[in-house]
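Appendix C reproduces, verbatim, an entry submitted by the partner laboratory led by Prof. M.T., so that reviewers can inspect both the input and the predicted structure.
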Amino acid sequence: MSGADRKATIKSLRQELMTDPRQLTNVLSDLGPPNVLTTRYAEEGERRPLWSIGIIIGGIALLAYWTVFLSYAGGMLAVVDTAELAEARSAFLLIDVVAFSNTEEVGIGWSSGWAWMVVPTAIVVVSFLIGARFWRALPRHR
């Protein structure tokens, strides 16, 4: 239930409770347990995807991916720098990573054609869809 719908529902429920001529305890007992009442209201409302939450989750997933990826590449660079290796190559989720260190230059790099762009994009899209609960947009059969 959206915030506006929830506020409107609460307001109308309060008005109904206050206008009922019976004692408040009797009116509340007639409503039943709170979980049954909330289930009844939830079934009436439309379940929608939470696109804004999906965007946030997708951004967090991308940030986490780049943090792990750069930590991996930085670790390779630390090993190359301390082990007197000129260069090290490895793969991280289909992406070729290279770390090099010599007397003239130090650095990290990556290449894999399409993979360096497709892998983070796939992570963001999957995280977005799961975070947004996309299945709520699908038609429900009863």
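The beta strands are 87-92, 95-101, 106-111. Additional entries are available on request from the coordinating office.
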